[in-house]
Amino acid sequence: MYWEKLSTETIQKSVFDALDKNLNYNTEPILGLPGTYLDQGQFYSFPFLKEAPFLSVLVNNPNHIGCHTYSAGEKYFSGTHQLEIDLLRICAEEILDAPKSGYDGYVAPGGTEANIQAQWMYRNYFMREKNAGLNEIGVIFSEDAHYSVYKASNLLGIMPITVKVGHDNREVLLDDLKKKLEDARNKGIRYLIVHLSMGTTIFGSVDSPASFLELVKRYFTHYFVHVDAAFGGFIYPFSAQKNELSFQNPEISSITIDGHKMLQSPYGTGVFLCRKSLIEYVQTPEASYVYGSDFTLCGSRSGANAVSMWMILMTYGSEGWSQMIRQLINRTDYLCKALDEIGIKYFRNPDMNIVAIDCNEISEELADKYYLVADNYLQPQWRKVVVMTHVTQEMIDSFLTDLKKEKQIVNQ
Ligand SMILES: *Cc1c(COP(=O)(O)O)cnc(C)c1O
């Protein structure tokens, strides 16, 4: 895995050069393009924009509609499109081990859309290539999967199939998986979308593809595997010794990886990636006025989002980012070691920065004081700590001091 770190000046220059290659409403006689020139009463050329490449792109408002790994796209914005293509290359080839140019993708509004996009694509594949009916297609996932998986199956009219996990280790229960696969077959499901997580939202647990797929294969010949790395995609590939959920695994056909979680980019930066020869199944041929056609759920989208992610990745370089993740993992190790010493029950994947604490071990007041998110607000069983960059050693120490005090009172 390697990408270069660039200086602030080089990043600024690259973004402004890209903007220069885009169409300029101030200098070109643009009669036919609607709506994308921002309201000049509100968004005039603020003088400070010269120093602010991201805000300049935001105000310039290039439209990144379409899928630029597939076709050239709207020629009006080719400068910033190129930065999106470079961003997707880094995510796919460097972070997620895709073969060179062997993928398509785009910067979606978020992980939710990227997950919907995956199910949409496979559903259409099964319908078009296998003549499948909606009632013959299902999507299977662990109960810890993100709720967007239900949103997608609901929208697409296919059957959601939830598999139970072990309470303490958050691993898929293979007996239950077997049972659910049998049930699904008996109900007439013939085509399966397997939705695996690289870092679940509440636990940071990571699915093991081998045992899951071995069982799937016993019951289904036709299936696709999507990996939801919305949360874990910018951590796990950097922290884990071996990542079985990358494109190096031939079973995996698509991956969601969000910028607006771990990469700390603005909202609007989900990334959808899939292997070549699949995105065609979500092409909308009727999008005839869009140069390069449309393959996305969202349609128009701001190029500023892609540029924000590109700038962050360039600021760190691969080595800088790996170091950052190492620090977060070490800080999480520190927290877990202290929890072990106090004797607090928790779940944590050792390559992730999420620690889910058993609710029996911590008072609601303390969990609320530190804003620990619950797995379920109506009936909380776990409250999680997420060790992000803003979570300092001092904050962790203060939390641990409070926790120790509470524990001592309880033990007295
Ligand atoms: C946050 C998250 C999502 C959804 O992402 P949005 O960007 O909020 O749409 C999907 N999957 C996982 C695992 C997540 O953590």
Overview of this structure, please?
- The protein contains 11 helices and 11 strands.
- The longest helix is centred in the last third of the chain and has 40 residues, at 303-342.
- Helix 4 packs parallel to helix 5 (148-156) and helix 9 (303-342) runs parallel beside helix 11.
- The protein is an alpha/beta fold and 412 residues long.
- The strands form 2 sheets. A 7-stranded mixed beta sheet has the order 1-7-6-5-4-2-3, sandwiched between helices.
- The structure holds pyridoxal-5'-phosphate.
Outline the secondary-structure elements:
Blueprint lengths: L7 H14 L31 H8 L17 H18 L7 E6 L2 H20 L6 E6 L5 H9 L2 E5 L10 H13 L4 E7 L11 H11 L2 E8 L6 H4 L12 E7 L11 E6 L27 H40 L3 E2 L6 E5 L5 H6 L3 E2 L7 E5 L6 H19 L1
Helix pairs in contact: 1-2, 1-3, 2-9, 3-9, 4-5, 6-7, 9-11
The structure holds pyridoxal-5'-phosphate.
Q: Rg to the nearest angstrom?
A: 23 Å
Low-confidence stretches: none
CATH class of the largest domain: Alpha Beta
What is the overall silhouette?
Answer: globular
CATH superfamily of the largest domain: Type I PLP-dependent aspartate aminotransferase-like (Major domain)
> Looking at CATH, which topology of the largest domain would you report?
Aspartate Aminotransferase, domain 2
- Total beta strand runs: 11
Secondary-structure element order, N to C: HHHEHEHEHEHEHEEHEEHEEH
